[in-house]
Amino acid sequence: MNEALEVWIDQDLCTGDGICVQYAPEVFELDIDGLAYVKSADDELLQAPRATTPVPLPLLQDVVDSAKECPGDCIHVRRVSDSVEVYGPDAE
């Protein structure tokens, strides 16, 4: 499965645990509000609700692991082509 994937975080459910940041600091960051956000490819914090960022292929497993381990169940990974969630709370 080498399809393009993107990831976003539901801040309403984020517990601020920071597990995602430990797994993939290139993709996730805790902000001053204590919640996790995704970062753009050029390392900019994306604070808009439901902001998505591409999942870099080399980091796919780290992003998937953070979605699985997230205590808030708030990390969503979906295909770019059809927006179907492949990892996270809404995945089939």
Automatic annotation (TrEMBL):
Required co-factors: [4Fe-4S] cluster
Pfam families assigned: Fer4_15
Concerning InterPro entries, the annotation shows:
3Fe4S_ferredoxin, 4Fe4S_Fe-S-bd, ET_Ferredoxin
4Fe-4S ferredoxin-type domain ranges (all copies): 5-33
Q: Which domain of life is it from?
A: Bacteria
Keyword entries, A-Z: 4Fe-4S, Electron transport, Iron, Iron-sulfur, Metal-binding, Transport
PROSITE patterns to which the protein is assigned, alphabetical: 4FE4S_FER_2 (PS51379)
Q: List each coiled-coil range.
A: none
What SUPFAM superfamilies does the database record attribute to this sequence?
4Fe-4S ferredoxins
PANTHER family, alphabetized: FERREDOXIN (PTHR39163:SF1)
Q: What does this protein do, in the record's words?
A: Ferredoxins are iron-sulfur proteins that transfer electrons in a wide variety of metabolic reactions.
- In Swiss-Prot or TrEMBL terms, this protein is called Ferredoxin
The record lists the organism as: Streptomyces xanthochromogenes
The opening ranks of the lineage are: Bacteria, Bacillati, Actinomycetota, Actinomycetes, Kitasatosporales
